[in-house]
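Need the bound structure for iron/sulfur cluster, inputs here:
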Amino acid sequence: MSRTALRICPLCEATCGLTLTIDDGRVTGARGDRDDVFSKGFVCPKGAAFGAVDSDPDRLRTPLVRVDGELREATWAEAFDAVAAGIRPVVERHGPHAVGIVLGNPNVHTMAGALYPPVLIAGLGTRSLFTASTVDQMPKHVSSGLLFGDANAIPVPDLDRTDHLLLIGANPLESNGSLCTAPDFPGRLKALRARGGTLTVIDPRRTRTARLADRHLAVRPGTDALLLAAVAHVLFDEGLIDPGERASHLTGLDDLAAALRDLTPEAVAPACDVDAATLRTLARELAAAPTAAVYGRIGSCTVPHGTLASWLVDVLNILTGNLDRPGGALFPQAATDRAPRPAGPGRGFALGRWHSRVSRHPEAKGELPLSALAEEIDTPTDEGEPIRALVAVAANPVLSAPDGDRLDKALGSLDFMVSVDPYLNETSRHADVVLPPPPPAQSPHHDFAFNTLAVRNQVRYTRPAVPLEPGRMAETEILARLILAATGMHGADPAAVDTMVIDQTLSKAVREPHSPVHGRDPKELAALLTGADGPERRLDMMLRLGPYGDGFGADPDGLTLEELLAHPHGIDLGPLRPRLPQPLKTRSGKVELLPEPIAADLPRLRAALDERPAGLVLVGRRHLRSNNSWMHNVPALTGGSNRCTLHLHPEDAERLGVRDGEPVRIKGAGGEVTAPAEVTDAVRPGVVSLPHGWGHDRPGTRTRHAAADPGANVNQLLDGSLLDPLSGNAVLNGVPVEVAPLSAAAGETFGALT
Ligand code: SF4
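Answer from helper R.:
Posting the output first, comments after.
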């Protein structure tokens, strides 16, 4: 029997509402939900392939447990017995930090990934936490932490109202947006142009987004912070600073001006390959626009000065009066945010509260760099214990972290490893236990993280579109049972995890003077919660305590889960609104324009004025039909332009003797890979580009389509030593590489060809 069901798409950050067609319990089609309050019918090729993603025959259906060296199908009870037996002895013998946790990107795309990992981390008490953030956006968290006192207070560009948008290192026509949740990002950019607005794109590649722009500047990779600093310099130099109504919320303006005084357009132009006059024009246009927003993304984060570049993005918005005003960059207010506390000084943001054991990298936001995971496992030191057991949740760091070969070996040396993963992939093949979550259609969905980054305040929730298949376990229950097994409570009722979180949260809320439930009885509040299960009760609690919530009766018109369920296409909560100074949690209670760690890093930026690699440098590339490595196992999402090829400019191809389509060797500090050359002037001379998430050629995996066309692992070109020191983020762009035709004569060296 055919029917339809609504489901928020989990395949990228845009969070589009989908209408799924379901035949005999199977998703056979997906189209945009025209009534969705946020996405209004938009769907991209990934979302349209939801059914193929959901029914991939390589998805694991039962847990796997290693017996006599081989992974074999097992019952859930056997699997959790093995988890408890594997992790607890490590904790008891070597302490909690000997258990590492790795969280992959898909955690932010599931309810379970938002609700349970924090409980696992706190329950284990480990400081060995690694996530995809440190190969992606950690610089933005750190710059927000330093500027605003809250690492998660990230202003987003007001796409629908701005007059002038400057994008740096972002390609939303292919990524559909990141740290800026906006269904139909392409349509919103076209609407900006149609209403007479201006779009400038700064990117070493002439991306699809760049082709849409009024102006494209092909900056030299890795010099984004220099470029942005020069634009800020011009604003000061030409008296264009106008923070507007926000001036009273700022501190450090004079210090900032002094710090940027020598970073003139003329000084940075040779390093950036953007002429000084153009840099001055950028500044003047930003200042003159009625409203403007600067937005930086992965290309400006995954570079040696990623935190400085991320900081300067917000500095430009602040200096031009565009922070926290309509048409500028504003702080979203999600329905599950905590109820706003009164404005005033906060606890501030601290970096380096602890350090990694081997290279002494400072923690950032409680995390250590993913680049350091291998050495934290394979390198003994006099102090502290190496990681001996690992919990990986939706993570494939053998492909997503630098130097996968080293990590591959390190994972093989662990005493114990458990992966929560739907696939037997390059990482989970090392696990002693694999716990497969159900396909997305069988899971509920709410975007806890992405609603805090959305260009419009709204809230949506979809229950599972199809029931759990027999033998499947909900991902929420898998993670709850994992928490119990890892923390010495193996066998307890998994509902106890949700009950504990609810008790703790409500007990805290009733003690907070600004809370709508101040002074009430937590047990009475818990009894009021609705929902079919623990995760829904937690969602209900967060909604009711949140900024739009009913406050457990304090505001009868406020939001509850029941109300949300009555609106299956979501509830629109209005455009982004100015919120300062409420979001600020700095010790001063103000936006701290020149925080000490930033000031201390500026000499390193000045030193970069003289750095200019003589040879080729590598940048990444995003495909519209890809996001995570596992998407390469879905035939509907591979082929066409989604291929692992090395883009290089015709001038470089000619100099190196490389012909279009022929295989080339690419060599970096971490190793060498081979990929077909794609000669194109879409990439600037001196720069080559390889997409990420490929390299599906290791034995012992079960991703048959991906293995048939494995591609090359771009991260194998990195040795893990290049990091942005403030955030621990891996440097993935602007990395020196050498390229040579595979057919080059045996004695011919890379050096001679580069
Ligand atoms: S843009 Fe993202 S959220 Fe929307 S349909 Fe495509 S993959 Fe899904």
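Comments: The pocket of iron/sulfur cluster is lined by residues 9, 11-12, 14-16, 43-44, 46-47, 176, 183 (CB under 6 Å). The domain at 61-126+361-442+470-492 is CATH 3.40.50.740 (Rossmann fold).
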